[in-house]
Each structure stands twice: as C-alpha cells, then as structure tokens.
Write a structure and sequence with these properties.
The structure is a single chain. The protein is an alpha+beta fold. The protein folds into two domains: about 5-55 and about 285-425, no CATH class; about 60-275, no CATH class. The protein is built from 16 helices and eleven strands. It has helices at about 5-15, 20-55, 80-85, 125-135, 150-155, 160-165, 220, 230-235, 240-245, 260-270, 275-320, 320-330, 335-380, 390-410, 410-420, 420-425, and strands at about 60-65, 90-95, 100-110, 110-120, 135, 145-150, 170-180, 185-200, 215, 250-255, 270-275. The strands form two sheets. A six-stranded mixed beta barrel has the order 3-4-9-6-8-7. Strands 2-10-1-11 form a four-stranded antiparallel beta sheet. Strand 7 (about 170-180) and strand 8 (about 185-200) form a beta hairpin. Helix 2 runs antiparallel to helix 14 (about 390-410) and helix 13 (about 335-380) runs antiparallel to helix 15 (about 410-420). The chain is elongated. The two termini are about 25 Å apart.
Amino acid sequence: MRAWHVARMAVGGLRRAPLRATLTAMGVAIAAGALLTMIGFATGVRRQAEAPFRALDLFKNIEVKPQDAGESEEPIVLDDAALKRMEAIAGVDLVYPDIRIRGITVVHGDRSETGIAMAAPREAVTLAATEALIVAGRFLDDDAREVVIGAKLATELGFATPAESLGATIRVEAAGLAATDGATFAFREAKIDVVVVGVFKTPPLMPGRAQRAIFLPVEVMKEIPRLPDDGMLDFLKAGKSAEDVGYRRVTVRVRDPADLIPVEQEIRAMGFHTRTIASRFQEVRGFFVFLETLLGAIGTVALVVAALGIVNTLLMSVAERYQEIGIYKAVGASNVDLVVMFLTEAGLLGLLGGVTGLGLGWGFARVVELVVNFYAQGQGVQDRLTLFEFPWWLLLTIPVFSTLVSIVAGIYPARRAAGVDPIRVLRREW
C-alpha cells in the first residue's frame, strides 16, 4: 500500500471516534503544556536571577577581604598601599574600596528614610549598566558631593517623579566610630548635604534593602562614621591605630573575564581572601540545572501517563475495527502497513496534543506572569518580572517529544492489529 493511502486510512480511523480522539489529544496537550511551563519556569527564574549581575557587569568583579588573623599572626592591612599593588596587576581594570554603611538616614524636608550607603567611583559603572539602571540623570562625579538614589527611595522622600528629584539637596545622617586624628577612633555623628544627580531603578529579585540604597563618591563615604564591625574591633583590641584598620572590603574589576582567575591568584598570593560573583553563581546555576532536570522529569512522567491514554484509545479502535482490519489484510495489506497505520494514528494524536500543549502552556505562563507582576508592582518592584522563558529549542522539542512518546505508546496496539487473522475475521470467528 502506498504511504499516502496508509496515512489517509489513519486519519479516517481517528475520525471514526472524534470525541475519543479529541479527549486523548487533550490529555497529551495538558501533559505537554505542563512540561513546557515547568522547564520554562526554571529557565526563566534562572535568567531573571542572572539579569541584575549581567546588567551591572559583576561577573568581572573580585571581592577582596583581609584574611582572618590567627592567634600569633597579625592581619595584613587592606589599605591604599595594597590597592595600588592590586592596580599594578596585569589585567586589572579598576580597584576601589567597597564601603557599605547600613543604618544611614536620608532626609529631605520633613521626610526621612533609613537605608544603606555604598561607595562607587564613576568608573565602576559601565555604560551598559547606566543605560539599564539609570532612569533619570547620570552617575556620580568622583570629586563632587553628589548622590544617586533609588527610584523607590525618591518616591518615599516626596518626589513625584525621578526627574523631579534631580538637583535637590538631601542630607545623609549617620553615627558611629570615625578617626579623629588618624591615630584613634571616637564616636561621632555626621550630617552631610549632597545633591541628587541620578536615580536608578532596582533590578527584579534584588534584596529589599537595595530599594533604599544610595551611591556616594568614595571620598564622601570616607567621611561617614560607621559602626564597629568584627574587623575593626580586632584592630582596636590589639592597640592598633585608626589608620591600621584599612578597608574591610575592596572590589577589583578585570578587563576581560579570562583574566579573572590569574588576577585572583595574584591577590591571594598577597595574603588576602578573595571571592568572585562568577564562582558564587556557579553554585546557584547548579541549583537551577537541578531544578530544570527535576521539573522536566515530572513533566515527562505526566506525558508518559497521557500516552497511556493513547494505548487505551488505539486498543479500543482495534477492537471496533476488527472486521475492517481483516478485510484490509484479505485484499493485500501487509502487517507492516497495519503497523504503520496505527503508529501514524498515535503520532498524529501526539503531534496534535504537543502543538496544542504549546498554546496551553504559553497562555498559562502569561496569565501567571500578569498576576505576579500586578502583585510585585504593588510591592514597589519597578521592572516587569519574566518568570517563564521559552527558548526555541524547547518550543521545537515539546511537539517532537510528545509525538515520539505517542508513537512508542502505539506499538502494542499496532502489533495487536497486525496479528489479526483475516480468515477468522471473514468466518466471523472473533
């Protein structure tokens, strides 16, 4: 029998029981849609988690801290001299003290908010990051008393729009330990007036405290007193001066990601502790790979269960078409023709279910995203959250995979059809 004739008979077989075929295909569609949304969710969340780090170009950064001092050895100070040594390393693009002070108070008029202040030289922000995050104004000039604030903080300080805050003077207030004469520390309060020159938006999935962050030039940050941390207390207990404390954290940025490991090794050879965003994110990426695998396996099980419906549908079709099958064989149809016919029916059910599942999965994902983004915007998240990502390979794989699973499910019914004895059928001995 010609292939087109076998295919026509397969379509005719499905049309004999349209409701049953439709319900079977819908079972496959639901399973395929579940598989699509599960893998798409894991992929979307992984990319959403990576987005802020890529926007800020953080995968080229190395976080440097002093090693913890042992009982007999003194800690190596992470001071300006150490920073100059790091700047001289081949492949290093930028070195700056990563000063972060929590619990600062930002005041404008009669409004005040508590946030976190971070030091950042102008060179620390790439053009890509500026275009992605700065929603009004510009980034800092290193030699000016300027500040860049978050969009949510600008709203809480009474500005109607981010642009309205540009040029406004706000006050940064903090209390803690500060060097008095370069040799001792004393408790001091500081009130520093700075001009708003830029407003940034908070990338999705960033910690809530980032929404109340402000960026100040490094030199301005050095004027702000800070509460004593463990490192500072260790130095003070040892009778060291304020200048001996140095920085608790420094950021080193390389020119090219290929320079990351060699530069990190040289910094470690200086006696400092290092950590990279790239290495830390490897663990996160491993978790997402596990999540994608797990959700994909669950979706595959659902698809296999749906394929059992195809087995039942085709077995019922074989029973109902017993005489028809016998006549086909009596007029010359081979066992191969019958196997191909029923496998074609199974494949058509799987293909139809897989394609329909793409639409169901995509529609479900869009509805979930709408609901989540509506809630997130009410919580102050500025950017739209993309929870589902459907790469082209996934959209292609789902219908192909559902078709193959369905064909495998159709093997047993097809063999049953091929085993029909035409003599017994013609004698009505079945």
